Amino acid sequence: MNRDETIPNTVLMVDDDPTVRLLAQGVLPGQGLMVEVAADGERGVVEFERLRPDIVLLDVDLPGMDGFETCRRIRALPGGADVPVVMITGMDDFESIERAYEAGATDFSSKPINWTLLAHRIRYIIRSSTILCQLKQSQARLAQAQRIARLGYWSWDPLSDAVDCSAEACVVLGLEAGTDPANLNELLSHVLPEQGEELRRALRRTAEEGGALDLECRLKAPTGKRRIVQFRVEARAPGERPDGSVTGTVQDVTKRHQAEAKIRRLAYYDTLTGLPNRALFNELLGRAIHAARRHGRHLSVLCIDLDNFKRINDGLGHSAGDALVKTVAKRLKESVRRADAVGRVASGVELARLGGDEFTVLITDLDKPEDAGRVARRILGEVSRPLTLEGREVSMTASIGIATFPGDGDSVEELLKNADTAMYHVKKRGKNAYQFYSETMNAKALYRLTLETELRKAVENDEFEVHFQPLVDVRGGRVVAAEALLRWHSPTLGQVSPAEFIPAAEESSLILPIGHWVLRAACTQALAWQRPGAAPVRVCVNLSSLQLESPDLVERVRDTLQETGLDPSLLELEITETTMMRDVEHNIGTLLELRKLGITFSVDDFGTGYSSLSYLKRLPIDTVKIDRSFVRGLEQQQEDDTAIVSAIIALGHSMGLHIVAEGVETVGQLEFLARAGCDRVQGYLLGRPMPASAFTALLQEWRPARWAHLSSGTADTPAGRGAHGVDAGPTAF
Ligand code: C2E
Ligand code: MG
Ligand code: MG
To answer: Is this prediction's pTM over 0.70?
Structure first.
């Protein structure tokens, strides 16, 4: 159909009377209409299909197929239903008019034809039929849009209880197709009863007072499907509503709810294990704290971290790591479920995965905070059962820290932080255990932080000093070396022990500049002690693991030796056994490089690690320093210690190593060591660590003869031992 007003509309005139056809062709074009003609019904149908006219003028009395049948045929054609058909009847032929409408005619006109009037009528009919068509189309589009949006409209008259609704509203409300609900109850027949009641009440209120209504209800359709629908109404006050009824929409929002649930799942749950994630756990913990505060109850937070998980992840790959995390999650679920049901520890237990190998458990309604320990024990037992990963049997352990409300904190952050601190304590103490948080842990953490801040300043402010402790040759009784030991006097913390600040410096990497400074100071000092003609005094400098790993170590040592001018053979680097064994392959390379410079090495604190002497054979080592802890037992002739020390000396000698005993404090220890053939001794008996000037004096005052006498094992107790205060002056015998 032509809807463009600039193009003339086409009229198809079907009439057997040639005069009428001729008149139509003569008059109508002058009225802006295009005319096509057909002489009988058959031709008319064919022309209709060909031309798709905007209107058909159809004579009733046609030869052969009459006008009524022709009308029916046209109506049956595709697009034929929407084109207006005007039947031309005889004057007052009322029966024909009746039949014309039955056959689907739009209008009629009677003969004789008033052509001017007919032209006006044609234009009017075409215009209204166009509008009708547009209306139908927009209705169809609206219906389609409503179908797509699963949205229907409805209205309700509160006085008569009559309802009217769109087809889609019926579909959305689960009513059978074609049902025409008579009243509100029928319209809402599938809404779940209690919600239906609430909705009816709200609708009545809105109808009485006006206003808006937005309510979601659940439906149970006859198919059994559960859906969620949303009712929306905006009503004016009753007096202002033209027909008094309220109108609203109803929309199926099931999919939106499902999508929201999915988003919630993704935002609040861990995808690997399906456990609540950190965000949800924090929310749950927050609520639990609130409830516990109100009811005066305890709750505990357990922070669980797998031990050495990184090793599995790095060694067997991430998919094995994932599989492990899943298995552990399953075991944790099992153990907290049992903790709840069987142990009757608490009434609520929540488990979450915070990420990586970190899990948390929240136990609410605890009678006694100690009960959380039972859950922790059960978890440790479950986790450590062997499991198979990629065909290998793997054993896992975990470390658990526990913080309890209200004692250990009253906020989500504080409880989690303190449980975490307790967990780290377990890790430090050897893992595979649980530990309750205590305030001293925080104090320690705080002190460590202060230490680091102060250490940073100490480097810049020159607060360090190197002290020296003599190493004495057992056979000759001479001071043959000095161990450089770092001392720190902090203006804020006072004198701080190396046992405290060295680990802090290592953790913060500050040990690198500090260690370098010590090396330079020690070398400079050692050079000053050398006297022509006198026996040389070596200097022993402790090297931290970080220094050993640092790529520029060799270069730095070489530069320091060059700059200070110390003979490299007078420098000995002490490396603890644990550091030495950490990455043997790498260390061998570094030590060989350093050795090329002419430097020697000793293994410090020997016996505290797990290495054997034979393992050390692979490393270019000259000296082994037996740890103080073994020497301590020599005094009481403790069997273990005497056996170990004798064995280390004998074995070390067989490998061509020199043996030094550390921490020699008594003559008894010294006598034993001398008899066992120990090469050198170091300890308070011979001299405490002392400032460089005191060490210079010691070198001058030292009387080797007396000492040599003692080392033969026949001497009395050494006389004139030096003061025992920290870092005392020279000690002479
Ligand atoms: P270490 O290298 O094993 O040093 C020996 C430690 O034993 C020193 O403790 C020393 O004062 C102490 N000592 C010596 N003889 C006796 C004794 O007869 N009885 C007792 N009870 N103790 C004795 P200090 O000076 O407190 O140093 C502790 C540790 O700190 C050192 O152990 C060393 O590992 C580290 N350290 C010290 N200075 C440095 C340094 O400049 N760099 C690095 N990396 N570490 C250092
Ligand atoms: Mg040392
Ligand atoms: Mg040592």
So the answer is: no
